[in-house]
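Hi V.,

Quick status before I head out on leave. The structure for the redesign project is tokenized and pasted below; the design run finished overnight.
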């Protein structure tokens, strides 16, 4: 096959690696409009299950990713002057730029052409048997045919900003700070021996009350450094990781599409779907898309059948993740409901924020039920059964 991947993100690059390993005669080009090394973003997270899948697909790139990652097993929550520690599963962080460099090097070693500073426009697609739109949530290729794809974007209520810091954290860390205008918080985690990612979030009334809507980037960072001084320990916050722009406050955009393909054009990663950053699954889901698409193309000779299989497989896999992401975002949007709980309870419900039942049960009652469910299998099964049903009932009533 002749394959053109538009967008040089992790999904496109890993898909090209898998297809070359599947059949070295495939003619594959990855087109990236930006210069090499200019990616926006700090660190990304993933868990051990993804490493297993990467190793199955291409052991060499999996080893390189693992060797360049940092890991943690503790979660730490700072709420004002209170701190709670939770011991959990091992997680990993890796710099987005580092990840892209590793995958691009591996793709090139297999014979993939990776062309930077090469923009593909929606009205002039490359001549290829398959065109993969891996050009992100703002995909020009998808937008050109938005009616066909049935694209829908919903905006989250809270605002967030994606920052870096030279403070190296050895745990996945949450910090909640109360201000005169409401709570502001961050998610922070290390991704190298020198830097960490720090995602700051707050409600819109807090954002405007603090003046962050009017502040310059430098003034805004200075204010955030004061608010999170205990977490940062004297280290600064860093804005956008490239010279052609500043860090921006955004509302998260949840993207869905009615269909993922049009003829020989198929959507991949953030061009097909997005999930709220608070569950840390974006990069994992994009790479799993690449694995599924490559597998479908290997199993089906007809392109239409392969693309249909890919879409069906990934839609089914995404359903529980999208539900978890939706409830996670709602948990943070409802933070005052939980923030005054005793630290252990608050952190326990932070860990349960994906539950469809949690928004409809008083927090302290839910905590007691969850503790009991941990000891009784029958109650645990009932809780899993009840949650989605309560959520569907409440949502149906709210639409009347």
């Amino acid at each position: 096959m002749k394959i053109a991947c538009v967008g040089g993100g992790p999904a496109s690059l890993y898909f090209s690696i898998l297809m070359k390993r599947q059949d070295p005669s495939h003619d594959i080009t990855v087109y990236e409009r930006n210069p090499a090394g200019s990616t926006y973003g700090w660190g990304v997270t993933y868990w051990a299950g993804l490493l297993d899948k990467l190793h199955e697909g291409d052991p060499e790139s999996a080893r390189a990713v693992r060797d360049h990652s940092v890991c943690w097993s503790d979660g730490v929550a700072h709420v004002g002057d209170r701190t709670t520690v939770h011991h959990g599963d091992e997680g990993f962080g890796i710099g987005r730029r580092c990840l892209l460099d590793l995958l691009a090097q591996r793709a090139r070693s297999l014979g993939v052409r990776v062309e930077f500073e090469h923009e593909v426009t929606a009205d002039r697609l490359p001549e290829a048997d398959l065109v993969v739109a891996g050009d992100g949530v703002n995909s020009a290729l998808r937008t050109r045919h938005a009616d066909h794809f049935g694209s829908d974007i919903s905006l989250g209520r809270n605002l967030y900003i994606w920052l870096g810091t030279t403070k190296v954290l050895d745990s996945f860390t949450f910090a909640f700070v109360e201000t005169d205008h409401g709570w502001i918080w961050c998610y922070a985690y290390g991704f190298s021996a020198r830097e960490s990612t720090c995602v700051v979030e707050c409600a819109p009334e807090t954002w405007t009350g603090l003046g962050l809507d009017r502040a310059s980037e430098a003034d805004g960072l200075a204010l955030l450094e004061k608010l999170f001084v205990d977490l940062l320990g004297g280290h600064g916050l860093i804005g956008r990781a490239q010279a052609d722009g500043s860090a921006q406050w955004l509302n998260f955009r949840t993207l869905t599409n009615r269909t993922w393909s049009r003829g020989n054009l198929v959507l991949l990663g953030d061009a097909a779907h997005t999930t709220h950053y608070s569950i840390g699954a974006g990069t994992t889901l994009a790479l799993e898309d690449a694995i599924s698409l490559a597998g479908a193309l290997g199993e089906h000779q007809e392109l239409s059948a392969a693309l249909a299989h890919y879409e069906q497989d990934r839609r089914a896999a995404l359903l529980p993740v999208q539900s978890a992401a939706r409830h996670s975002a709602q948990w943070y949007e409802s933070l005052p409901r939980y923030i005054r709980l005793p630290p252990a309870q608050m952190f326990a419900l932070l860990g349960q924020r994906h539950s469809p039942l949690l928004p409809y049960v008083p927090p302290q009652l839910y905590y007691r039920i969850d503790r009991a469910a941990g000891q009784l299998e029958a109650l645990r099964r009932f809780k899993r059964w009840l949650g989605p049903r309560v959520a569907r009932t409440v949502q149906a009533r709210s639409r009347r």
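Above is the designed sequence. The chain is about 40% helix and 25% strand.

G. will cover questions while I'm gone.

Best,
W.
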